[in-house]
Amino acid sequence: MSRFYQYILKPVLFRFDPEKIHHFSTELAERPIIADAIRKIRPLPEDQISLLNQQLGDLTFTNPLGLAAGFDKNARLHEFCDALGFGYREVGSITAKPSPGNPKPRLFRIPDDQGLVNRMGLNNDGVDIISLRVSESRDFPAVNIAKTHDPAIQGKQAVEDYVYSFRKLAQVSRYITLNISCPNTEEGKTFETPESLRELLSAIQRERNDSTPPVFIKFSADLAESEVFELLQIAEDHDINGYVCCNTSTDRTSLQTNAGLLQNIGNGGISGRPVHQKSCRMLKFIRQHIGESGILIGVGGIDSFETAKASLASGADLLQLYTGLVYKGPGLVREILNSFILEMEQYGMSSFREYISYLRQNQLFPEKNRPGN
Ligand SMILES: Cc1cc2nc3c(=O)[nH]c(=O)nc-3n(C[C@H](O)[C@H](O)[C@H](O)COP(=O)(O)O)c2cc1C
């Protein structure tokens, strides 16, 4: 599948507008016949797939690789994600009110960086409709919520807007990620300052009880360590269960893409390869800070077995990807999962937690900790 995608399908798809291709391929992907066909191509080995299971607190994952937020904004791709091999999907971002997002064009490829630039602006069908789809999904998806894209919604109203979505989704979602880091709204990242985050988390905390799911926070790729540190302390005071590292970046300093092309594209968040190191750096920083007490999801530039391992070695328990699918094709998911299985078998490991802890130690002391030494 990967070679077919790389040499035949991708050159054709890349001739067309990226958002049109996304729309076209997700319309196709919604059809059960497509999911059935994908399931027949090189399925994951049934007897070995259980090696990738993980229990993280009350959450069970059949494998660590999930679909990142933004791809399935409206909760329509359950069968497709399952057929590709994803262990879970994060639906959204979902907002209290439906929104058409920013004017088009708003999604661009930057192949010289194996990345995308997007300023979608939280286009989605709104929580009233999406929560029904989520509740009907057999895979019990995770969801990602954000404030409605409307600069008129500010202050207390902005908090209420978030809380409305939280309430609607609390009984039907595997976990809820608070997206406080969307770079593409007119009003900016409304909850990434300490005071506003504290206010939001206090309101969310009042909604939580034994039957509500774990709550994660998704950070921007561009936060300085001192900022992450301050936000983590607030999060810890409000019983946040984990962190998603990270959202897209607005930093263009180290891109290979021609400056003129970038200027023509205009504003937007960068995803793909340019955010991988930023994501790994943040994972390491947060893991050192929280120890083993929280769940970390690594997302940003995961497009191969090597980048997936680097994110786990940096402290992630789970992984997500989006841009890798565009550049490497849908076969990427099984390619990474199969490589995990092969390497675990080679090292004689029988649990994914054991594999993760080996990768983390190996990152610190590469030679000493090789299995067999
Ligand atoms: C077109 C596009 C739309 C996105 N929309 C969202 C979104 O609605 N909410 C969100 O939290 N992240 C969104 N993201 C960010 C991704 O979830 C992810 O954090 C980021 O792209 C880095 O991962 P990647 O390099 O694997 O793409 C979007 C990314 C892209 C490319």
Task: Write up what this structure looks like.
A hairpin with a 2-residue loop joins strand 1 and strand 2. The chain contains 14 helices and 13 strands. It has helices spanning 2-13, 18-29, 32-40, 78-84, 127-136, 155-169, 194-207, 225-237, 259-265, 276-290, 305-313, 323-328, 332-346, 352-364; strands at 54-56, 59-61, 65-67, 88-94, 107-110, 115-118, 142-145, 176-179, 215-219, 242-245, 269-272, 295-299, 318-321. With 373 residues, the protein is α/β, with parallel strands linked by helices. The chain is globular and about 50 Å long. Flavin mononucleotide (FMN) is lined by residues 68-70, 73, 92-93, 107, 116, 118, 120, 122, 144, 179, 218, 247-248, 271-272, 275, 299-302, 321-324.
Name a few traits of the molecule.
14 helices; 3-stranded antiparallel beta sheet; TIM Barrel; single chain; alpha/beta; binds flavin mononucleotide; 373 residues; 13 strands; 8-stranded parallel β-barrel
Q: How are the elements arranged and paired?
A:
Layout: H1 2-13, H2 18-29, H3 32-40, E1 54-56, E2 59-61, E3 65-67, H4 78-84, E4 88-94, E5 107-110, E6 115-118, H5 127-136, E7 142-145, H6 155-169, E8 176-179, H7 194-207, E9 215-219, H8 225-237, E10 242-245, H9 259-265, E11 269-272, H10 276-290, E12 295-299, H11 305-313, E13 318-321, H12 323-328, H13 332-346, H14 352-364
Parallel strand pairs: 3-4, 3-13, 4-7, 7-8, 8-9, 9-10, 10-12, 12-13
Antiparallel strand pairs: 1-2, 5-6, 6-11
Bound molecules: flavin mononucleotide.
